[in-house]
Amino acid sequence: MHRIRIKLCIILSLALSTSFLAVGQGCSDAGFCTLNGFKPDAEDSTTKNYKHYAAVGLSHGEADHAIAIWSSYIEFHRQLSEKAGIDLKLVGMNQTDKNISSTGFSDIYVNTSYAFMKNATALAGFKIPLQDGNKQSSENLSLPMDYQSSLGTFDLILGLKYEIKKFTITAGLQQPLTQNNNQYLSELYPAGSAFKNFQSTNKYIRSGDVLLRLTYPFKITKQLTFSPGILSIYHLKDDQFSDLYGNKQSIKGSQGLTLNGTLYLDYVLSERSSLNLNAGKPFITRKVRPDGLTREYILTLEYKFKF
Asked: Do residues 9 and 1 lie in contact, with contact meaning Cβ atoms separated by under 8 Å?
């Protein structure tokens, strides 16, 4: 049985690794797939001894227009009771290409969890923006969403996690309750400008997303857990913007499915600390990503300390 598990692990690893070499776009989302409860989290023997934790993480991804994305975060989890917990997460981002480097705080996430059944947990929270989504260029013109460190929306986040025979199934909804203040219009930039060839997002109206994730952990050694998975994100409607004349326009192709392969590696350093390395790569993508969340891939390294 142990040999069968190892073989299955190798097959899944090779299959997903092959997919990472494929050309694709769109791996990222509006934030909820990386929140505690929505992402895989390998349990170990110390989980019962230490209920709370703090974590720091660093992510790297490649976006459209040769933009390199660096994102960092600090996260804090407090177990309120045997069934309930709360998470706070602060995120910052840097977007850099040959023309510009844009850095800023992104969002604060507040997320709660409640285990209402033995194998089922309800999740609920909010994304609170720290920017209005309207950073400007040196010409005092609004930058495209690809250079905004936050979507600038206040979002409701709801989810449900269910575990069955080591499989974890997670479903979620992230719905903007407010919109941002972006005023980017490609027509306002002069010919030859690096910022002229992006999708206009003046008075941008972003739709919500639903998430469905399936993961399965493999215990390789006492310290190492390997968790491959599939992550699907469906953008519910076409987004909208207002053109140069104030007319509201739908952004055709912005609705649709993004399907990603994910890999999580958890390594226990000590009784209280662990490292997590995870990677994501899309198989299927939406045609248009006006929100600037396109990723050809994303890699994240996290350090966690329990107390």
From this structure: no
Q: Please identify which residue in the block is written with the tokens 């409860």.
A: 37
Residue with tokens 């917990």: 85
174 three-state secondary structure: strand
How is residue 8 annotated by DSSP?
A: H
SS3 readout for 72-92: EEEEEEEECCCCEEEEEEEEE
Report pTM. 0.89
Q: pLDDT digit string (tens) for 55-80?
A: 999 999 998 889 999 999 999 999 99
CA dihedral sign of residues 247, 251, 255, 258: negative
What is the topology classification, in CATH, of domain 2-301? Porin (2.40.160)
Model confidence pLDDT, tens digit, residues 248-280: 999 999 999 999 999 999 999 999 999 999 999
How far, in Å, CA of 100 to CA of 117, rounded? 50
End-to-end CA separation in angstroms for the chain: 35
For residues 84 and 112, the answer to whether their CB atoms sit within 8 Å is yes
Structural domain spans, the chain:
2-301
